[in-house]
Amino acid sequence: MDVDTGTDDAVAIMAAALSPDIELLGITTVNGNCPVEICTENTLRVVDHIGVNVPVYQGCSLPLSATLTPGRKPNIPSIEPSKIHGHYLDLPAASSAKQDVTAAEWLIRTYLESDGDISLVPVGPLTNVAMAIRQAPKILDKIPEIVIMGGGHHVANCTSSAEFNIWVDPEAARVVMNCGRPIRLVTLDATHEALFTMETCDALKEIGTPAAVCAAAFAEVRIAAYDKAQPMGSVGSAPIHDALAVCAIIKPEVVSTVYAHVDVETTGELTDGRTVVDIDRSGDRGRRPANVHVALHADEGLFVEMMLDILSNEM
Ligand code: RIB
Ligand code: CA
To answer: Which one of 28, 161, 165 would you pick to mutate in the ligand 1 pocket, going by the greatest count of ligand atoms within 8 A of its CB?
Structure first.
């Protein structure tokens, strides 16, 4: 997994680490919800909290190039903590340490040495993944699938046009969307149909495992923030975006996808970072072959059922 640990990344990491259907080989961190150093500390706090021994590799601290145009992107990671994620997660300071190898180096080494059977699951800006692809294009032969949390077709959350992970580093997202490997894109259209509610939080607290109690606490933070700043259909609910991407690995039927051409806007004044999805392939100008399985809907009942089951596990 490649993460920018924040609150939903944390829930996704716990789901991946505790699911009997996933072998979580490593976690790479990237600048996104927080400065990358904080994302790394948060990731270490999460793995320590559930007692799993998964190596963590720190990655890029800024997008590939998006901060070089004055005024286009914040030139330093968001110093102002977000309401949805804050900065440091409310967990004890990490006792484990990150690895010495950087994220891109580990991704390259791991894929080149692999048998081509390791799924790549980025749930933050795609800077590390694009960096690894540019540094060692041969890894593409060894990546069977990339399951990304990012983008949106009818739904945006960062500007009126873009989703946060793609918006932070549009050039990196463009490199990845056009890399030629099988991609599933779990968009906001889907994640906004797979919500946790206060009842979900109560059920998690009832389960009482370290992961379930932690996920309930983070979900409650998210619900309070979303109710205030980005209300979902029903008050008292919030998406757990990154966890849906993990569940889509375990049970693909938790999302429904369309196979379409997707590319990323990198020069639009108003649409910078938008995932442009050619859904109905209308018109014949610039039609390009489909390259991404775009998840536009989700099965909320199955998602919640899966998460309650997985988070009831403990090491
Ligand atoms: O837009 C949602 C995505 O942005 C999630 O991955 C969240 O963690 C943030 O990174
Ligand atoms: Ca994330």
So the answer is: 165
| CB of 278 shorter than 6 A to ligand 1 | no
Ligand 1 close to Cβ of residue 127 (< 6 A): no
Task: Let me know: does 148 contact 176? Beta carbons within 8 Å.
Answer: yes
pTM of the model: 0.97
Summarize pLDDT for 168-186 with one digit per residue, the tens.
Answer: 999 999 999 999 999 999 9
Pairing of strands 255-264, 275-278: antiparallel
Residue 315 lies in a domain: no
Q: Provide DSSP, 288-302.
A: ----EEEEEEE-HHH
Q: Could you say which residues of the chain have pLDDT below 70?
A: 76-80, 282-286
Angle at 256 between CA 25 and CA 300, to 5 degrees: 80
106 lines ligand 1 (CB under 6 A): no
Provide the CATH number for the domain around residue 241. 3.90.245.10
CA of 81 to the centre of ligand 1 (A): 14
pLDDT at 77: 61
Asked if 232 contacts 192 with a C-beta cutoff of 8 angstroms, the reply is yes
Averaged pLDDT score across all residues of the chain: 95
- The reply to whether 198 falls in a domain is yes
Task: List the beta bridge partners of residue 258.
Answer: 294
DSSP per residue, 90-122: SSPPPSS---SS-HHHHHHHHHHHS-S---B-B
**Number of folded domains in the chain?**
1
Residue 152 domain boundaries: 2-310
- Rounded to whole angstroms, how far apart are CA atoms 258 and 263? 15
22 domain residue, yes or no: yes
